[in-house]
Amino acid sequence: LAALAGWVAALAAAVLPQWRQSSYAGDAIITAVGLHEGLWMSCAAQSTGQVQCRLHESLLSLDVHIQTSRALVVISLLLGFFGIIVSVVGMKCTKVGEEDPVTKSRRAVAGGVLFVLSGLCTLAAVSLYATQVTYEFFRESTIPINARYEFGSALFVGWGAASLSVLGGSLLCGSCPAKEHRGQQYHRQSQPSTAREYI
């Protein structure tokens, strides 16, 4: 459930346009228009409540950190989707696939590994974007501080999603039982050695 919640939160973070938002720091606070930017679109929210959004039309004109975050988020969602399928097949309460508990536990562990990788990809995407926002906020520039960008709510959703995915994947990875060798050990009777000893 934790891994599934992390995947849903990662999907929500990928769709939300609030990866960075207008900063309201400084003396002159501008509240008439609030700007939000995400991986797929940029939005402007008026003080009257009207919101206008525009999709990023050109892929190649985007900054490198946005393209990289996009790729990592898409990879994360794909890994999480396959992790859900593999984990459901490997759960003890499902009747899908083989009934061998060892095989099912191995599938659950494989799903857990996929969830951990998914969480790490989400963490990398969000952290990379946050690093760029921090760099642009604190670098020396002629842009006033209240016209710069700071962390948006989608970044915090992404960090939470990564934590849940890694936690759920780790719990699934720990569900692998120890191999039982009972009844599978063959006892060999001791036979007199016929090999010659060489000095």
- Show unreliable segments: 180-190
**Amount of helix:** 40-55%
Could you describe the largest sheet, including whether it forms a barrel? 5 strands, antiparallel
Q: Any idea of the CATH topology of the domain at 1-15 and 59-175? A: Butyryl-CoA Dehydrogenase, subunit A, domain 3
Structural class: alpha+beta
Spatial strand sequence of the major β-sheet: 4-3-2-1-5
GO molecular function: structural molecule activity
Keywords: Cell junction, Cell membrane, Membrane, Signal, Tight junction, Transmembrane, Transmembrane helix
Family: Belongs to the claudin family.
Pfam family, one: PMP22_Claudin
Please provide a written account of the structure.
With 199 residues, this protein is α+β, with helices and mostly antiparallel strands. It has a domain of 132 residues: Butyryl-CoA Dehydrogenase, subunit A, domain 3. 50% of the residues lie in helices and 11% in strands. It contains four helices and five strands. It has a five-stranded antiparallel beta sheet. α1 packs parallel to α3. About 6% of the residues have low confidence. It comes from Grantiella picta.
Please give the structural blueprint:
Layout: H1 2-15, E1 20-22, E2 33-37, E3 41-46, E4 51-55, H2 64-90, H3 101-138, E5 149-151, H4 153-173
Antiparallel strand pairs: 1-2, 1-5, 2-3, 3-4
Helix pairs in contact: 1-2, 1-3, 1-4, 2-3, 3-4
GO cellular component, one term: bicellular tight junction
Organism: Grantiella picta
Membrane topology: Multi-pass membrane protein
